[in-house]
Design a protein that fits this description.
The protein is an alpha+beta fold. The chain contains seven helices and seven strands. The longest helix has 13 residues.
């Protein structure tokens, strides 16, 4: 078994201010390209020349307009009470992807550790593999931020590779030894200067 990934999802209720703020946060998380860094450093021609600045120059795609707010209010008015309650969902939905590397059908035990030290255990029966022969997705909901997910924390099941039972992955530690460099054989030197070979060996 192997944990292939953990995804976190938050509800986008469509409210323009919150929705655009989430979109901006996602875009800010993408690293800048060298060209974008260059433009940030030297600036664009339009930034240096106001005559080239059109309406889009000052347009902020992450700031909701009055029309955006009005359209959202109209849509919300048409919703039923139970639908409005769904939009108030504030927890995070997590999805743990587990891959069956060896092909053996076994139950799944997941220990979930949150950032403030609290833990939660999920025990899933082997019938989960009816949902997928090679890979399944385990959902759970929490209002806490996940720090780590561990598969089979008690080492109760047969597993050839324990390194992929943890997400995020840990750096694997090992060791190495130093040894003297072996001298390459020199048949000609051994034949012509046998005494020097013996001195170096001693």
């Amino acid at each position: 078994m192997s944990i292939e990934g953990v995804n976190a999802y938050r509800l986008d209720d469509g409210e323009p201010g919150r929705s655009m703020a989430m979109a901006k946060k996602e875009e800010d998380a993408v690293p800048l390209t060298p060209y974008q860094e260059f433009l940030d450093e030297v600036g664009t021609v339009a930034e240096r020349n106001k005559r080239l600045q059109d309406w889009y120059f000052s347009f902020n795609p992450y700031e909701p307009s009055e029309k955006d707010l009005q359209d959202y209010a109209k849509k919300r008015e048409k919703l039923e009470d139970w639908q409005r309650e769904q939009l108030e969902f504030g927890e995070t939905a997590y999805l743990v992807t587990v891959k069956n590397v060896g092909g053996l059908i076994m139950p799944l035990v997941l220990d979930i550790e949150f950032t403030k030290g609290r833990k939660r255990r999920l025990e899933i029966p082997p019938e989960i593999w009816r949902m997928g022969k090679d890979e399944v997705k385990i959902p759970f909901i929490s209002n806490r931020k996940v720090r780590e997910v561990v598969l089979d924390p008690d080492n109760a099941f047969a597993d050839a590779d324990l390194a992929n039972n943890r997400f995020p992955r840990e750096i694997e530690e090992g060791r190495f030894k130093l040894k003297p460099r072996e001298k390459s054989p020199n048949p000609m030197r051994s034949a012509l200067f046998p005494d020097e070979e013996e001195k170096e060996d001693n």
